[in-house]
Amino acid sequence: MNRKYRNTVIAANWKMNMLPSKIKAYAEELKPLAAPAKWCDIVICPPFVMIPAAQKAFRDSRISIGAQNLNENESGAYTGEVSSEQLSDLGAHYVIIGHSERRQLFGETDITVNKKVHAALQANLRPIVCVGETAQQREMNVTEELVTLQLKAALAGVPATKMRRIVVAYEPIWAIGTGNTATAADAEAVAASIRAVIRGLYGARTARAISILYGGSMNAKNAFELLSQPDVDGGLIGGASLVPADFAAIINAANQDAI
Predict the structure, then answer these.
(1) Are the C-beta atoms of residues 110 and 146 closer than 8 Å to each other?
(2) Are the CB atoms for 54 and 94 separated by under 8 Å?
(3) pLDDT digits (tens, 9 = 90+) for 156-194
(4) Residue 218 · residue 183 · CB < 8 Å
(5) 171 is catalytic
(6) Superfamily grouping for domain 8-231
(7) pLDDT tens digit sequence for 221-258
(8) Gap between the Cα atoms of 31 and 37, Å rounded
(9) Beta bridge pairs of residue 213
(10) How many CA atoms lie within 13 A of 112 on its CB side?
(11) Contact, 151 vs 197, CB < 8 A?
């Protein structure tokens, strides 16, 4: 991490877990544990139906609320979908875009991801743009090329004036929910590559201001080492975020002295 230039961000992706009736108790346990993390932006991304309950539960804290997805259209006949403006009106500040589960299970493409990034920015949401490779692609040694393609596609048409609202999350697909984790050196190598791509597109000043997160089985045991890397500025946390004490341990690991 390098706090001189950019924010540390720890975001929880609850996926399709938790119940609205459980959020208050979760928040009451997490808030005192996370209170000392003054140099860390903390985000909770629950399912859509839980956003109002999460907003209420965390309203007296520094913890922001985000969403896990959005539809790229402003409004219309899209049964079951949620727009960026609806999320913004609810008080959400962040939205996860392009998660591998959305790509693999629901057919999202790089083009769809790009449209969603623009919709989020239009509604003043902060996109957390996910990129990452499968185990097979990693074995083929095309990680950097694939992540570069995903990132360039996601950012197509995004003006420099809006780039600083974007957060990028490197999530190796082979590590998500498996218990396998990229080594700190591997996470740093890809994060540095991502920053180099942004530098080439938007210049050095913008690149050094963008927060790049690691996602993929980050937990209380490995968080400190991963977050010690100069280009890893936080984490997008799945399963470990469902237990307040475990999530707080990751937040505290992110609260280490700036590098």
Answers:
(1) no
(2) no
(3) 999 999 999 999 999 998 877 777 778 999 999 999 999
(4) no
(5) yes
(6) Aldolase class I (3.20.20.70)
(7) 999 999 999 999 999 999 999 999 999 999 999 887 54
(8) 10
(9) 169
(10) 15
(11) yes
Q: What are phi and psi of 94, to 5 degrees?
A: -125, 160
Q: Where are the domains of the chain?
A: 8-231
Binding-site residue ranges for substrate? 13-15, 177, 217, 238-239
Among candidates 224, 219, 222, 253, which has minimal Cα distance to 12?
219
Tokens 């589960």 appear where?
101
CA–CA separation, 11 and 236 (whole Å)? 5
d(CA 18, CA 232): 28
Task: List b or e across 122-153, with b for residues whose CB sees 16 or more CB atoms inside 10 angstroms.
Answer: ebebbbbbbbbbeeebbeeeebeebbbebbbb
Catalytic option among 72, 101, 133, 171: 171
The rounded radius of gyration (Å) of the Cα atoms in the chain is 17
Catalytic residue chosen out of the listed positions 99, 101, 118, 133 = 99
